[in-house]
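Minutes, project check-in
Item: structure for the 119-residue chain
Input as provided by the requester:
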Amino acid sequence: QVQLVESGGGLVQPGGSLRLSCAASGSIFSINDMGWHRQVPGKQRELVAYVTRGGGTGYAGSVKGRFTISRDNAKNTMYLQMNSLKPEDTAVYYCNADVSSTAGYINYWGQGTQVTVSS
């Protein structure tokens, strides 16, 4: 009933920028905390950044100062602006959100979008 769909991933050179989007759809009443996570093969998924419904944010130390998370509550959409990208940022990026809907209060995940930073 609720879907999170990421977009905006791709191949970028070191030092470049990308903007990821995560759009939530379905019978949604409200969305509380939202976050971006990333995972590389053989490693655990890690939290990159989060944003509360009121706009409070937090970042992993490795991305602080380079990435900016934001959201548009009216559009049920979250963004991740990634600047000064490094090869170590290469990963599949997933969004997740705590959603209140007709199905109840559930934490949902998107399907992921690949970000590759390489020259």
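Outcome recorded: The chain has a mean pLDDT of 97.
No further action items on this chain.
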